[in-house]
């Protein structure tokens, strides 16, 4: 409590010109009593005390202003959070996700929620991490039973944390008995293992919290790509088509067939190898294909067999590495069996070790030109 007092008092004094003794006594007592006249938590206090940006503070402040809330209540709640070692950044993240966060009252519901979290096995640090990504856990009693189910299904809090970080609505809007459990059972019938379903859940996919009828439509759509249901590709296809209507999927396939210039059979090969291609916008796909075909000179068949090329950024990955390949080729320094995809797919550290550092003396300025190109600058003549 005293640590939080030292951190917050200077900022709160600046935001609220009240006597210092007022803040000290209220923080130390952690009382829920109210003052008269009532004061609101305004944007200045949210920025100064909680680390919010101006835009985030304005958004949170508007929500708070709808219900009268005095400074005491906000101070009491912030003091309550001190036990969980939340930093300003943590509080800002929670407030951004849940604008009513700073309006929560330290009452029986709040303390009961924390007690229940401890009862299901969460440690104090884990509760603090949970509050940051799913602040609704403090105000909605129904979220505890949902959390308990996910802990049982995924096996540990770190795995649950990954799932919630990618999809916080898991705790807010779903019915375990009528949606989640039937969907898990159906996916298992389709050949997916518990491990497969857990990976889908942790990826942020919403498939488990959808209506079971919709999930069946998603599976039927993914089946059209001809991948074995037990394959990793089928799992990625499910994640790709989740949230995309069958009509939209058909339209995306027609678009890809046209811009790549390939047959239906070739397109199915591309989608089966990289299902996430269906999630990219037509604008991104068009620009990537134009660069790969017109600038790099790749044939449609080459792209079809390496569809992951379409997922990389032109500015950050494709263009800079193409220019490096071009320079090394012109100087006869590149091995004949080195193709464009082999240069694109490797991570940045490996690319430096293999294609930049060995030519530091023989091609001066190559590394600098590459880094400049990644920042959007023109690649110079070398």
Automatic annotation (TrEMBL):
Family to which the UniProt record says this protein belongs: Belongs to the mTERF family.
Matches recorded under Pfam families: mTERF
GO BP annotation list: chloroplast organization; DNA-templated transcription termination
Native organism: Oryza sativa subsp. japonica (Rice)
GO terms for MF: nucleic acid binding
Protein name as annotated: Os02g0749900 protein
One of the record's GO cellular component terms: chloroplast
Organism placement in taxonomy: Eukaryota, Viridiplantae, Streptophyta, Embryophyta, Tracheophyta
InterPro entries: MTERF, MTERF_sf
